[in-house]
Write a structure and sequence with these properties.
Blueprint: E1 4-8, H1 12-24, E2 29-33, E3 44-48, H2 53-62, E4 69-75, E5 81-87
Antiparallel strand pairs: 1-3, 1-4, 2-3, 4-5
């Protein structure tokens, strides 16, 4: 779990609604506590496969779901994890 992608939310409501919609589309996701590397936000995030990014964006847009951002969590050269925001 050193290199993964997550959607971070501003509200638990949007996190739970997004989770339900993504699961209904049979996407491989995992709801987890927001990684500490991401600044304060809702306590829930959704981990997903990079290949599903476009489909996730479409589903969220079609359903007017808000998010804080999409982040790539990586382990840097010092062995510490860091969050790189790849989309708003």
């Amino acid at each position: 779990m050193n290199d993964f992608y997550v959607i971070s939310f501003n509200s638990t409501h949007h996190a739970i609604r997004t989770e339900k919609l993504l699961l209904a589309e049979n996407l491989k996701i995992l709801t987890l506590p927001t990684p500490r590397e991401i600044a304060a936000s809702c306590g829930l995030s959704i981990k997903f496969e990079k290949d599903d990014l476009e489909k996730i964006n479409t589903i969220m847009e079609e359903n007017s779901l808000e998010r804080r951002g999409i982040f790539h969590i990586i382990k840097n050269q010092d062995g510490e994890r860091e969050a790189i925001k790849i989309q708003d």
